[in-house]
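Narrative summary of target 7.
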Amino acid sequence: MKTERYGNFVFGNVLKDSLESMCHTEKFQAIYRDMQAGRQQCQATCEYFGVCGGSAGSNKYWENGTFASTETKACRHRIKSITDIVLDKLENSLGLTA
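Modeled conformation, tokenized:
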């Protein structure tokens, strides 16, 4: 799939290029920088960072149009909601809620 920002997500040719050399391409480095920026944004702003680590780059890109972003629908439903349910049940079972 071609995208305006990153082209077609092809980093090299496995028959000719090493995995290491593909990681040094400008395209790979641009995506890596954006993914790191998104992860850092999550770390700085999200109380659930310890659960997921701010990753899920594909969700960030396809939902928000960039890897350098934070919350997605997938994050809300797959990480945050589940974490809230588990913590609520755990706190209730331990008698930690008022």
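Residues 73-93 form the longest helix (21 residues).
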